[in-house]
Structures are given as C-alpha cells and as structure tokens.
Design goal:
11% of the residues lie in helices and 19% in strands. With 94 residues, it is of the alpha+beta class.
Length: 94
C-alpha cells in the first residue's frame, strides 16, 4: 500500500497558493475556425446574437453584425442558425 504524503504546516501556517491573473474567457490561440459575416446578406434577424453560447455577437440595425474575436470560440452555432447564410466559418489564419 502506498503512503500518502502529508503537507505539514510551516510555522503554524498551511502552504497556500495565490491566485494569478487569468485569461478570463479569452480564446487565445486554440480556435481553429472563425465566423465571417457578410453584412450585405444579413437581415438583422438577431438569431446569431440570440444563439451565441458565449454572447460575443452584437447586431446593430444600422451597422450589422459585429463579433468580439477575443472571446469567440469558433463553435459555428451562429453560422448554423443564420437563415440567410450570411455567416461562414473560415480557417483561422496562422
């Protein structure tokens, strides 16, 4: 049977780690595809904004669709729900 190492307090205090600054939901370099919007085809139906699982799509009546690529995971839900096929998924550059 293996023994379990017990961490003993140092000078009466347990060894603790301190939290470090995280990426706070940013995508980083792991996304393989990104959505690209053709605002000429977009009818501003808001389906992409409603169904985006990470809430990074905004639809403005005057300007169309904007996507925050720092947080977009590239899942493709927006492209799947777009009735006008105004959003397409393209390979991530690099």
């Amino acid at each position: 049977m293996d023994r379990v190492e017990v961490v003993k307090p140092v000078h009466g205090r347990l060894p603790l780690t301190t939290p470090s600054k995280g990426v706070a939901g940013k995508t980083g370099l792991w996304r393989t595809e990104r959505p690209v919007v053709d605002n000429g085809k977009c009818t501003r139906c808001f389906q992409c904004e409603i169904y985006c699982p990470v809430n990074v799509i905004r639809v403005e009546p005057e300007t169309g669709v904007s996507i925050d690529y720092e947080y977009c995971k590239g899942c493709g839900v927006c492209a799947d729900v777009c009735p006008m096929r105004a959003i397409s998924m393209v390979p991530e550059a690099g």
